[in-house]
Design a protein that fits this description.
Elements (H helix, E strand, L loop, with lengths): L15 E9 L6 H10 L4 E6 L3 E6 L11 H6 L2 H17 L11 E7 L4 H12 L12 H5 L3 H10 L5 E5 L4 H14 L5 E8 L5 H9 L25 E2 L1 E9 H6 L6 E10 L9 H15 L8 E4 L5 H15 L6 E4 L1 H4 L6 H9 L2 H4 L1 E2 L23 E2 L5 E8 L3 E8 L2
Parallel strand pairs: 3-7, 4-5, 4-6, 10-11, 10-14
Antiparallel strand pairs: 1-8, 1-9, 2-3, 6-8, 9-15, 12-13, 14-15
Helix pairs in contact: 3-6, 7-13, 10-11
C-alpha cells in the first residue's frame, strides 16, 4: 500500500471495490473466455449485413438471452435490455452475494448508454412502411422500449430491484460514467450495492453505420478480424459492435464483512469536457482529464502500470489521444499501453466497462494483453511500452488507468488498483 494513494486513507465505508463482473462481448460471454481470447489475440469482429447499408463488419454477441428472462419478456423488451439483463445477472451470480436476502430497495442500477431507442423507432417505421404508414400498426410497446431509462429499467424489472435505476448518457464514455456514478452513489449512501457499467445495442440500427460511412469513418477490410486496427498506418475507421459489462460495486467494509472476493478497488476517476467540437477530440482536454484523475488519487504518472486506451481506429482520434498520453506519460518508465477495441470493435456505451474488465485480471497475473492488427505503427501514435500483437508479462501491475472518450467532447478516466 502506498501512503500517497488517497483512497487507502479513506475509511472502509468510503472505499469502493469491484466484487462481481458479468459481461457479453463479441469474443466472450464471461470474463474467463473474454480474457483468454484477449491474451490469444482472437478477434470477435465478423461479416455483418444490415438493411439499407448492406454488407459491412460488426462485433456481434452470441449469448443465451433466455437464461435469465422468458421468451415473452425478451420479445417485449429491447436488445439493450437483454444484454444488460444477462451481464447484471452474471455479475451478481459471480459476486457470491446471497441475492435472495439482499434488501433490493438499497440496490442502485447505473447503466451507461451511448444512445437508446434508435433501433426500435427504425424497426417500427420499417414495419408500417409495409402498411402504407398506417400508424394503427405501430407497436404499443414502442414508448417503454425507447425511453432513455429503458436498459436500466429492464434490469430492475428482471431482478425485482426497487432502489434507484437510471441510465447515464455519456456517448462512448458511458461505460466509465456508469461506474463513476455507482461509486458516487455508494459514497453518498444512496444505495448499499451498485450495479454499474454500460450496454450497447448499436449494431441493430442502420443509422449508426450510415452516419459513420458518410463521415468516411467506417472500417473496411477483406479480413473482418483485421478491420479494427488502432495506431496502425492502415487504420481506416470504426467497427461498430454491441455488448454489455456490469460490475457489482460495494463498500470495502461490506465486502469484507461478507467475505467477498475483491477483484479491484476503484481509487480515482475524472470526467471533463472539450467544449471544442461535435466530433473531433481535444488532446489538451483529454490530458487534463487524465491528470485530474491522477491528482485526485494522489498518484503520479509513473504509478500507473497499464493504460487501457480509448483509440477507435480513426485517423485523427488515435493520434490525438496518443498526443495527450505522451504529454502525461512521456517520461514514465513503468507504464504500458494497450487497446481492446482491436479485438472487439467499438462497443459504444459498453466500451469503457468492457475494456476495464478485460484488463482487471492483469492485477493478478501481471500480463498485459496486446493491441492486435498493429502491423505498421503510425509515428503519430508512438507510445512508450505500447504492447503490440502479443500479450506481454510486465514487472508489476498495481494500478490500471482506463480511458474512455465520446462525441461532444466528453472525456472520462477510471483508475483501479490491486485489492
Amino acid at each position: 500500500m502506498i501512503a500517497k494513494d488517497r483512497a487507502a486513507l479513506l475509511p472502509d465505508d468510503q472505499r469502493i471495490v469491484i466484487s462481481g463482473i458479468g459481461l457479453t462481448s463479441p469474443n466472450g460471454n464471461n470474463l474467463e473466455s473474454y480474457r483468454q481470447n484477449l491474451l490469444a489475440g482472437i478477434s470477435g469482429v465478423k461479416d455483418y449485413e444490415i438493411r439499407y447499408v448492406g454488407k459491412t463488419l460488426a462485433g456481434v454477441c452470441d449469448f443465451p438471452a433466455t437464461e435469465y428472462q422468458s421468451k415473452k419478456d425478451a420479445r417485449r423488451g429491447t436488445r439493450a435490455g437483454a444484454v444488460g439483463i444477462w451481464a447484471t445477472n452474471e455479475a451478481i451470480r459471480r459476486s457470491g452475494l446471497d441475492w435472495q436476502n439482499v434488501d433490493r430497495s438499497r440496490v442502485g442500477i447505473y447503466v451507461g448508454v451511448t444512445e437508446h431507442g434508435n433501433v426500435e423507432t427504425e424497426n417500427e417505421i420499417y414495419q408500417i412502411k409495409g402498411f402504407d404508414y398506417d400508424t394503427q400498426f405501430w407497436s404499443h410497446h414502442h414508448n417503454p422500449r425507447t425511453v432513455a431509462n429503458n436498459p436500466a429499467g429492464e434490469v430492475a424489472l428482471n431482478l425485482g430491484i426497487t432502489g434507484p435505476h437510471y441510465t447515464i448518457g455519456a456517448a462512448c464514455a458511458a461505460g466509465n460514467a456508469g461506474v463513476i456514478q455507482g461509486v458516487q452513489m455508494l459514497r453518498l449512501n444512496e444505495c448499499d450495492l451498485a450495479l454499474a457499467g454500460g450496454v450497447s445495442e448499436s449494431i441493430h440500427t442502420f443509422g449508426i453505420f450510415a452516419s459513420f460511412k458518410s463521415q468516411g469513418a467506417l472500417a473496411e477490410h477483406s479480413d473482418p478480424a483485421k478491420a479494427c486496427r488502432p495506431f496502425d498506418t492502415q487504420r481506416n475507421g470504426i467497427v461498430v459492435s454491441e455488448g454489455a459489462c456490469m460490475f457489482v460495486l460495494e463498500r470495502l467494509s461490506d465486502a469484507r464483512a461478507r467475505g467477498a472476493e475483491i477483484i479491484a478497488e476503484i481509487v480515482s476517476y475524472a470526467i471533463n469536457t472539450d467544449a471544442t467540437d461535435f466530433v473531433l477530440p481535444n488532446p489538451e482536454r483529454q490530458a487534463q482529464c487524465v491528470q485530474l484523475a491522477l491528482q485526485r488519487g494522489g498518484l503520479n504518472a509513473d504509478d500507473i502500470d497499464i493504460v487501457s486506451t480509448h483509440a477507435t481506429g480513426t485517423s485523427s482520434g488515435d493520434a490525438q489521444e496518443c498526443q495527450a498520453l505522451r504529454s502525461v506519460f512521456g517520461n514514465s518508465t513503468h507504464t504500458h499501453f494497450n487497446n481492446t477495441k482491436s479485438f472487439i470493435g467499438h462497443t459504444m456505451g459498453a466500451a469503457g466497462a468492457l475494456e476495464l474488465a478485460g484488463n482487471l485480471p492483469s492485477l493478478k497475473d501481471r500480463v498485459c494483453h496486446a493491441t492486435i492488427n498493429l502491423d505498421q505503427l503510425d509515428p503519430e501514435c508512438a507510445l512508450p511500452n505500447l504492447v503490440a500483437n502479443e500479450a506481454r508479462e510486465i514487472p508489476r501491475v498495481r494500478y490500471i488507468l482506463n480511458n474512455s472518450f465520446g462525441m461532444l467532447g466528453i472525456n472520462s478516466v477510471v483508475i483501479v488498483r490491486q485489492a
